[in-house]
Design a protein that fits this description.
The structure holds two protein chains of two kinds. By secondary structure, chain A is mostly helical. Chain A is 73% helix and 0% strand. Chain A starts with a helix and ends with a helix. The interface between A and B is large, with 38 and 61 residues. Bound molecules: iron/sulfur cluster (2 copies).
Chain lengths: 288, 656
């Protein structure tokens, strides 16, 4: 049939996608930031295995300054600071990640349902979210932990409860704007059910926003968790945790500076890396 | 065959060699950067515009036409880090060297700009009067300006906000601002594209009249050759960042010298063309400005291409006749006079009036409530008693201007909009739909395969057969095999629309709904999609409800046409009858607004607001046949002649 021929020929002449070129050609600084992020996560995971000494046992002379044997010195009772910082890295870093993941999951689910359903469900869920958002997070966390007793687990629980509303709002806003696009109507006409539309046609669109927000948030959390430990509301001494190590070591600042300063530097590096990596992730997502 | 386009612009100031041109751009190169990729958007463009001359700049998306217009104003988007080489002189001022202050002064007093969407260039928070006063000296001047551009009751409009005006009026306000400084040059970028056909003609007339009266030049940037041809004295055809052809309008229409101009002319739709066979199309897509061929940019699509066409950029050389230039190395040897390419005729579609109807709509009502918790009440009737029947296998075009309710009707049929009265029967198989903006109707992160397979899954096709069905349907809609695993962003506009069509027909529905599927596409690509829909309908025996604002498209694709105005179908009947011999005054006006249809009936005003529908016949404030009773009593729908030709007008009541 001659009628088909011109139509068939009018297929494509455009060159193939160049999406990956963008990622591969990402600036060196972005690759570096992401590399550092991977490295620090690896360090955190392997911390206890890499530690040369038991972080809880006195292994050397007390308050020994940094030396070849004890690279970061020892604390007031002679525990190896290097091993303690490595293990502290693990609890702080993994705790921050756990809270973020929890917040994204809870907040994301609530935002998704609210944004996709609309109507009164949306209103109710968002009013609840607003109530949580209105509470000052750190003060509430302090109150909760003070009420149920200080421990790292309780702190994580308290912070998780407070961290999701932000993601709920973010995801809901994204979902609402996606839900207004014709592709949702098109999916409905194609016979995709409510769950399928939510899962396949709405949720993936909100993922980049949530990931970017979360990656920029990790640094805040590291600082908040360290701060809470610093106030004595997180992991209890002698457990190695960067915030509480800084706090308890503060009294020796003038005599043995390395005891509070080494964990403080670790906190600083951790939040710096998290922040730059968050920026890089945002840039990469923007570009692709 | 002579071209059926009227040239309205009465050859005002023709180019005289002694006068210095208002615009003199030479050897202009522009690079823009998007997503870290630099593209060479204009490649050595020369353009001169004489004082008082109207030049049409025609090109498809990505041709660089908008960039050229903006370069003349030195208004290229800073975000795209423009790099400009060459020379641009406007009114004797070197636009590339002049300091920003001088440019601002020049733009304020000597240049005017009119854009496609006036809403983006007018300040939404400021009254019209306030915005006009920035360019006019006094209120008196502002009123005079509004009067000059044909805004009724100019005094009252000064207090209006932009959103309170209709699209046509907003465009007039933009034009008023553009002429306030008594400009030497106006750049109008797609000034009529967003407007309804009946309003389009008014704006074009206004622009050409103002240029004559003020003696200023106009660069009319448009994708539509027919629009340019209506008022331009000279047309510049741009393709892939190069000028393909420059010629006086009449000469170009009669005898294009560049194969691309000829193809544009051929793919133009008009009301005289042969509807019994497919449209001649241009294969392929316009070049990607990030990846332009080294040789003639048209070579991949050109039927006359020779190997040496791809070797180097053809230069723009003078052709025979005054003011003619073309950039085709073979323009001397090939004859491109518009001729009908004889494609094999369509087979007759299988319309089966005996079988169960694909759609029966009876007295359908759709209300949009603006009532909220504390403010109850005012509902708007978007559809006000619509009756429509589509027989099995039949194609009905729903024609009307924006806001007439045509899209709402389609969505109601699709079940995407709740009806508040009447009955809709689409049989047992749910209809499928193709949307206007294919890009946003495809889920951006899913591949074409996933989108189409999803449809198969919901139709209960076993997993094992799906891959095969997907590949078959992609071949059927003319998509290359790699498109199966591409995401929408990797496809061009025409390909996206084909993916959307593939999803709709992979399990053939009884009724396919098409909501302006080609209006967002380039002319040369749209023809291919129309052919595709025409062919699929015959192959699959589907009925189609095709929404369009373009009568020529309706005539081409449909067996029957239904014309809507303000939520009612005012006339429906066989396409050829309705278009050749319309009865309702509104249909007459719509059809007369097409280029080439002879005398144009100019409608007063613009379509009324749904919030404040006129009493009696909704059309009476604009109808030139209106009588007293029209304002008080709604007309009855009566049949005229035979074969289901129905009209909603008192004139027809008397005839029928
Ligand atoms: S130069 Fe060659 S490819 Fe280009 S338009 Fe002319 S014939 Fe076609
Ligand atoms: S009913 Fe009257 S106003 Fe309406 S279209 Fe007919 S003549 Fe015009």
């Amino acid at each position: 049939m001659a009628a088909i021929e011109p139509v068939l020929r009018s297929g494509a002449s455009l060159s193939r996608p160049r999406r990956w070129r963008l990622v591969r050609h990402a600036p060196l600084s972005d690759k570096l930031a992401l590399g550092m992020l991977a490295l620090i996560t690896l360090l955190a995971l392997l911390g206890p295995t890499l530690a040369p000494h038991d972080p809880l046992a006195a292994v050397g002379p007390p308050s020994h300054p940094p030396s070849w044997q004890y690279p970061l010195g020892t604390d007031e009772v002679g525990r190896d600071m290097f091993s303690r910082v490595l293990c502290g890295l693990q609890s702080t870093w993994l705790a921050a990640l756990a809270v973020i993941v929890g917040g994204v999951l809870i907040g994301g689910a609530i935002g998704l349902v609210a944004g996709a359903t609309g109507g009164w469900v949306d209103t109710v869920l968002m009013r609840i979210t607003d109530v949580f958002l209105a509470l000052p997070a750190s003060i509430l966390a302090i109150a909760v932990v003070a009420a149920i007793g200080p421990s790292l687990f309780h702190t994580l629980l308290a912070v998780s409860i407070l961290w999701w509303p932000y993601y709920a709002r973010l995801v809901r806003a994204e979902i609402r704007s996606l839900a207004a696009r014709p592709h949702i109507e098109a999916a409905r006409l194609a016979g995709v059910g409510w769950g399928g539309r939510l899962w396949r046609h709405l949720l993936p669109g909100a993922v980049p926003t949530a990931v970017v927000a979360a990656s920029l948030d990790v640094a805040n959390l590291v600082v908040l968790l360290a701060g809470l430990s610093f106030l004595g509301l997180g992991a209890q001494p002698p457990a190695p945790e960067l915030g509480s190590m800084t706090a308890t070591g503060l009294s020796s600042l003038l005599t043995s500076w390395w005891i509070p300063v080494m964990p403080a530097i670790a906190i600083f590096l951790l939040s710096l890396i998290a922040n730059t990596a968050g920026d890089s992730i945002r840039d990469l997502m923007d570009r692709s | 065959m002579s071209a059926p386009i009227e040239v309205l612009g009465s050859g005002a100031a023709a180019t005289t060699a002694t006068e210095r041109p208002v615009v003199d751009a030479a050897d202009l190169d522009v690079w823009l950067t998007r997503d870290h990729l630099e593209s060479h958007v204009l490649r050595g463009v020369d353009l001169q515009i004489a004082p008082g001359e109207i030049v049409g700049l025609v090109g498809e998306s990505g041709s660089g036409k908008t960039v050229l217009g903006m370069s003349l104003l030195r208004l290229l988007p800073e975000g795209a880090r423009p790099r400009v080489e060459g020379r641009i002189e406007v009114d004797g001022i070197d636009m590339l060297a002049a300091p920003e202050e001088a440019l601002r002064e020049l733009r304020r007093h000597r240049l005017g700009a009119v854009f496609q969407d006036p809403m983006t260039s007018l300040d939404p928070t400021m009254r019209i009067g306030g915005q006009l006063r920035e360019v006019a000296e006094s209120d008196g001047d502002a009123i005079e300006l509004l009067g000059a551009v044909g805004v009724p009751e100019p005094k009252r409009r000064l207090r209006a906000f932009p959103h309170e005006l209709s699209g046509g009026l907003r465009q007039r306000v933009m034009i008023a601002m553009a002429i306030a400084g008594e400009p030497r040059l106006i750049v109008a970028d797609e000034p009529t594209t967003a407007l309804d056909v009946t309003v389009q003609a008014q704006i074009l007339d206004l622009l050409s009249k103002l240029c004559r009266d003020l003696g200023c030049s106009l660069l009319l940037v448009t994708h539509d050759l027919a629009v340019a041809a209506q008022i331009a004295q000279r047309v510049v055809v741009l393709y892939g960042g190069r000028i393909a052809e420059v010629a006086p309008t009449a000469a170009l229409l009669e005898h294009p010298r560049h194969p691309y101009s000829a193809a544009l002319l051929r793919s133009r739709l008009d009301v005289e063309m042969d509807v019994t066979r497919p449209l001649p199309t241009l294969h392929g897509e316009p070049p990607d400005p990030r990846d332009l061929p080294v040789g003639c940019p048209f070579a991949p699509r050109c039927e006359f291409a020779r190997p040496d066409c791809e070797a180097a950029l053809p230069s723009l050389d003078p052709g025979p006749g005054p003011g003619r230039f073309d950039a085709c190395i073979r323009s001397e040897e090939i004859d491109l006079r518009p001729k009908r390419v004889e494609l094999e005729p369509w087979v007759a579609p299988l319309v089966d009036p005996q079988a169960e109807d694909a759609l029966v709509a009876a007295a359908v009502q759709v209300d949009a409530g603006s009532s909220s918790f504390w403010r109850r009440g005012s509902t708007v009737k978007i559809l006000n008693g619509v009756d429509l029947r589509i027989a099995a296998g039949e194609c009905v075009a729903l024609v009307g201007e924006s806001g007439c309710g045509k899209t709402t009707l389609v969505k109601a049929v699709a079940g995407l909009v709740e009806t508040s009265g009447g009955a809709l029967d689409v049989g047992d198989k749910s209809p499928q739909m193709v949307f206007q903006d294919a890009g946003s109707s495809l889920t951006p992160w899913l591949t074409s395969r996933e989108l189409v397979e999803e449809r198969l899954r919901s139709c209960g096709v076993p997993r094992a057969q799906r891959a095969e069905r997907v590949e078959a349907v992609f071949a059927q809609v003319g998509l290359p095999a790699w498109a199966v695993d591409a995401r929408p962003a990797q496809l061009s506009g025409g390909q996206r629309q084909r993916v959307a069509i593939a999803r709709a027909i992979v399990a053939p529905p009884k009724l396919l709904l098409c909501d302006e599927p080609t209006s967002a596409l380039d002319v040369s690509v749209a023809a291919g999609v129309l052919n595709l829909i025409g062919r699929l309908r015959r192959e699959l025996g589907m009925a189609i409800l095709f929404v369009t604002h373009d009568i020529a498209v309706a005539r081409l694709i449909a067996d029957r046409v239904a014309v809507m105005y303000l939520g009612r179908i005012v006339e429906s009947g066989p396409a050829t009858t309705v278009i050749a011999d319309p009865v309702h005054p509104y249909t007459k006006a719509l059809i007369s607004s097409l280029p080439g249809s002879g005398g144009r009936i100019k409608l007063k005003g613009s379509p009324p607001s749904l919030f404040d529908p006129p009493s009696g016949c909704a059309f009476h404030p604009r109808c030139s046949h209106a009588r007293e009773e029209c304002a008080t009593r709604p007309p009855r729908i009566v049949a005229v002649g035979d074969s289901r030709h129905e009209v909603d007008c008192v004139l027809a009541e008397e005839q029928g």
